[in-house]
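The instructor's notes for this session suggest beginning with a concrete chain rather than abstract definitions. Hand out the sequence below and ask the class to guess, before any prediction is shown, which regions might be ordered.
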Amino acid sequence: MIIQKQNGKVVEPTKTQRPRFKMIGKTMLGLEEVLADELRECGATNIETINRAVSFEGDMLVLYRANYTCRTALAILKPFAEFEATSTDELYEQASRIEWEKLMDVDCTFMIDSTTSGEIFTHSYFAALKTKDAIVDRFRKKFGRRPSINTESADFKFNLHITDNHVTLLQNSSGDSLHKRGYRQAVGIAPINEVLAAGMIKLSGWKCDCNFFDPMCGSGTILIEAAMLANHIPAQYYRGDRYSFTRWREFNLGDWKRVKTEENRKIGEGDFDYEIWGNDIDESVLQQAEKNLEYAKLHKDVMLHLGSFEDQEPPEGRCMIITNPPYGERIKVEDLNGMYEKLGNTFKRLYGADREVWLITSDFEAMKHIGLKPSKKIPLVNGSLDCRFMKFELYDGSRKASKQDKTESNE
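After discussion, reveal the predicted structure:
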C-alpha cells in the first residue's frame, strides 16, 4: 500500500470511483414519479421522468439495489448502443458492428424485445428479426458458431427501441419482469399486477401509520404488498437470484450479496402497531390469499374475513382502504351499477370518519352510481384497460358540517 502524507499527516488512499452510467427504469403509466422517488432512495442521480419510465444515472450498486428494492419498477435497462438507421439493411449493418461478443458468449441464449414508432420502421417484429440476424451472423463469422434464441428464459435480454430513424439498444438487467415477485402460489381470475398494487399504495400516501383494509381482496396481492411495505421487506425478497445481470461480465457477486444483506437487515425495523385486514365473498379465492400469505410468512400479519363487503367493517380507528373491485371485464357481475351503488352506500354507512377510501376501476359508467364525489382521480392502466384510481374522503355527517367542526376547533 502506498502511504501519502500532506503537511506531515497520513492521508488514506482514495478508492477508485465506480463507473456511473445511464439507466432506464420501466414502469406503468401514472407511476413514474413514484418510481423516481424510489430510485432516488437507491442513490440514483440525474433523474428524469419520461413516458412509463424514468431515466437516471448510477453505478452497478445502484443497479443491484434498484432491481432488489423498487416496488414500482418493471425492469431496469442499461443502454449500450445508439445509432441512426433509415432502412432495415442499415439497421442490420449498424447492429453487425456492435461487439456483441463482449456482452455474451456464443454458448448463451438471448432474446430481443422491440418497440418502434415512426414511418421508417413500422413492424417491430421485423426490426427485431434483422437485429437478431446481425448478432448471429457476427458470431458465426468470428467463431463458426452462433448463440441460440430463447424467448422464455434467455440468458440475455436486449431491448430494441426505434423512434423514426434513431435506434437505441439496451440490456435488460432484470430478466423476467419485476412484477413477478415470487410470492404468488395461487391466483384468482383477475389478479392485479404486483407493481400496480404497490404503486396504488404509494400513490395513496399510506405511511404505514394507520390500519389497512381491502374489502374485496381476492387472492391478496394488495394486502401482501401493504404488509411487505409495513415490514420493510424488499420488493424482490421472494424472487431468488433470477436476474439477467448475474450473467453480465461486470457482475460482482460480493457487491450483490452486500446490497441484499444491507436491505434485508431493514426487515422488521420500526414498530408497525396497526392491523391489515382483507375481506372477500368467495371462499376459494380467500383460500388462495391465505396460501400466498403463508408462503410469504405474512399470515400472522394479515387477518382475512369471509363475507360480503356490505357486512364487514374495517378495523377500528384510522384506516386506509384500498381495493380493486370488479370492472365487469374478466369477472362478470350481474348488476355492476347496483354493485357500485352498494359500495358507495357501504362507504357512507360503515366506514365513517378517519377512513380514507381509494379504488381503481375502468368502468366509468358504473362509477357514476357510487354516489360519492372523488377528491382525486389518477389515470392508471391495469393490463390494457384505461383506469382511474380515485380517492373518497369520508366524514361523520355531512362534509359541510365536518369542515365547520374543523374550522371551529382551530379557532
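Then share the key points. The first strand starts at residue 4 and ends at 6. The CA atoms of residues 65 and 210 lie 28 Å apart.
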